[in-house]
Amino acid sequence: MAIIVNLDVMLAKRKMQSKELAEIVGITLANLSILKTGKAKAIRFSTLEAICDALDCQPGDILEYTPDE
Amino acid sequence: MNKIKTSRQRVVLVVVKWVLLITMALPIFALFFHTYGILFKYKYQQLSFTLPYKNNTDEVFTLNKERVTAIDKLNDYKMNLSVNDFSFNVYDEVGRLEALLLDIPIMICYIILLYMMFLLVRSAEKNVFFTYKNVKRLNYIGAAFLFLSIHDYVSDRIGIYFYNKLVLGKPWLTTFPVGFSGSIFESFFFTALMVFILAQAFKQGVNLKEEQDLTI
């Protein structure tokens, strides 16, 4: 996929655990891990909003685009 | 994941499952009786002809001398030949094996059909209905129906050929059905096409479900 989710980096910057984030955002840990490993096919705006709110960042800090070779 | 909530759905699934399980035993019984017949040389007594085509000449239905001789000849060979709209069977002490060979593919098809349907119902009970495995199972069901329709048609043709040869004395008399009666339109052919379409629809459903599951 050309879209890379940099949730790990952002979590490390904010020194937050995955479990904590999952609790704040209101998604299961399994779904968060799907998001982190890049298996996810789509992300709801509401989820993105909640993550940005919890980590106090912009969507661009989490999502990155690199063209496929 | 969607859970089955209503008790009605649960009852329907259980009933369908048990009906399938019971009907699954039927082809196995049929196979057993065929084998029994071969082993103990049980003979069919009757000699019956049902015309595959109800056509315009009454002559076909009356037995003239030639035809009586033909039937007598059949009796001499201890052969029972029956031709009807859908099947063709030759039974005698040797011919029984041929009948079994004709019936075995049908039985295998029915067993595949019933088993696949049973697996589908069981997956519905477990709430994992939209999977690629089920698409495969639907495709198998369609293939079984297609094979049954082709088998039906071919054996029908063979039966008509033998009827024409032994009774009318004209083996290559053209008796292809005109109209829908007894034609391929009456067989499982269209059921097979329908199941293939359903399998394709199911595949799209599986894709949608996967995307839905992977949307966070």
Automatic annotation (TrEMBL), chain A:
GO terms for molecular function: DNA binding. SMART domains: HTH_XRE. Residues 13-62 form the HTH cro/C1-type domain. It comes from the Bacteria. InterPro entries: Cro/C1-type_HTH, Lambda_DNA-bd_dom_sf. It comes from Roseivirga spongicola. This is Cro/Cl family transcriptional regulator.
UniProtKB/TrEMBL annotation, chain B:
It comes from the Bacteria. InterPro entries: DUF2975. This is DUF2975 domain-containing protein. The chain crosses the membrane at residues 12-33, 99-120, 140-163, 183-202. Keywords: Membrane, Transmembrane, Transmembrane helix.
